[in-house]
Amino acid sequence: MERTTFVQHIRQQEKSNPGATGEFTTLMNEIIVASKIISLEVNSAGIGENVLGLTGKINVQGEEVQKLDEFSDITFTTIIGKSEAVCAITSEEKEDPYIIPSEDNPGKYIFMMDPLDGSSNIDVNVNIGTIFSIYRKKSEGDEVTDEDLRQKGDEQVAAGYIVYGSSTILVYTAGQGVYGFTLDPSLGEFFLSHPDLKIPEQGSTYSANEGNWGIWEENQKNLVSFLKEDNPSSGRPYKLRYIGSLVADFHRTLLKGGLFMYPKDKNSPKGKLRFSFEAAPLALIVENAGGKASTGKQRILDITPKGIHDRLPLFIGSKKDVEMAESHLSATEKKGGWFKWLSG
Ligand code: P6P
Fold it and tell me: With CB atoms 3.0 to 4.6 Å apart as the test, which of 108, 116, 303, 330 could cross-link to 72 if both were Cys?
């Protein structure tokens, strides 16, 4: 069977885009290089040099920084920073953006990333991942402005993630479909494994941290109770699947369908997940795969963040499931409201 490498795929995509200058292709290829390095490190973590464990540092999110977090952040920043395709890099691990110095020939794109999401799972061998988002610099002149770094989700040029697990898989979209590539470690090449990914219109699982039940709002509790009701004619109860690593939970939802939720709660009144590094890139992917992504009220891609570290609630997955969640949340928010869903 003929196998398409990532490089062949991105070159084909470039040919179908008459205005392409090759800068996007360069950027994507550098992302591939960085992801291979991280994959090697993640899959050999603990063997030889001690990259497991904590650095003793706390990041801008107030989270303990794991050694692989820091390694991933430095690797992507160094490689993408030298690509001559980007003028700025923002990272979940860094308070401030990294502006590419003129001597490194900055390019027209802005790269945003969660370099290693789910890092609390590193030491227990659970899948973790990198999430990235690419915007075009919009302002005139060489200076990178605040508006360049806080663009509406719909302005993304491309978005993707790499999940480091039993195999390393890169999934991305540039607005013309969603494609998945699996790393063949023996060759060090990513081969097309998921051409034109589409998420099922409705799933049968929900993904949420029910340990937060006691700090959820009432309408969130009502929604999850609804999903757990024994009502086979409407496809309920849904099964619960929650890994606690967003990239792994999202990848399963994308492939199998269903609903991933990280709602706001008393401890995270704006939500826990970040707009720039998590919600917006995954929303671009899921919409290009036929799914939906919202805060429970507002479409993620309609949002322009006020800050590069903004957090928000996230409901993402199959179109019907996200719509069910939105209507249930708004109905039950109106105290005792009712709604019909899956009434057939
Ligand atoms: P909780 C990991 O720390 C992360 O940012 C996401 O990968 C994951 O979805 C979420 O937090 C898990 O949060 O509160 O359930 O541990």
Answer: 116
